[in-house]
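I am still getting used to backbone structure tokens and would like to learn alongside you. Label the sequence line and the structure token line clearly, so we can match residues to local backbone shapes. Would you write everything just below, so we can both look at the same thing?
***
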Amino acid sequence: AAVYVHSNHLCVRAEHDDSTGTSIDALISDWKRLSYPLRAHSSEIAKFMNFLEMLPTHKKALIIGATPELRDAALLSGKNITCVDRDMKQMREWRTNMRLKYVDDSEEKLVECDWLKLRTHDELSSTKYDLILFDQAMNRLPVAHWDAFLDQLYELLSDDGYIVLKVMCKPPTNYFKNVSVDDIINDW
């Protein structure tokens, strides 16, 4: 499910199980063969794309991670992209899985930075972004770091900006007391 946040942040606490054991290099080389949930579903990307198109004046986008489909969606909707991840080489290699085959550094800015250190990166911390996008980036962080991570994103967000994210998690039993997880997914 995705959560839209307007000039505020929301953290859903849940336990995370990274039991896939899949390396990033294997994901890059096998991306086209993979399917949901390792890869964003086309219906999810369509929802991201629709949201981006609803905000034509929100041009400056920060993408956390290197998800090729999100990068395509942002470029196709006319956004100026900064993509941030821990490994510059991998961000460039992920381009091989983008629909837009001729993307280079002139079309998207790539910034190498640990996601938990965004506020200490000179270039990132001095910029406000209209949109911050990510697909399952939080799933790669320990739950104990989620609040700090979201606080950093909020600091990078422009006053009328949005954080658009997808987090897959299995909430603890009875976490959602008044609504079922199925209801949240169906509403999305």
Summary: The helical segments are 24-30, 42-53, 68-76, 88-94, 122-125, 146-156, 181-187.
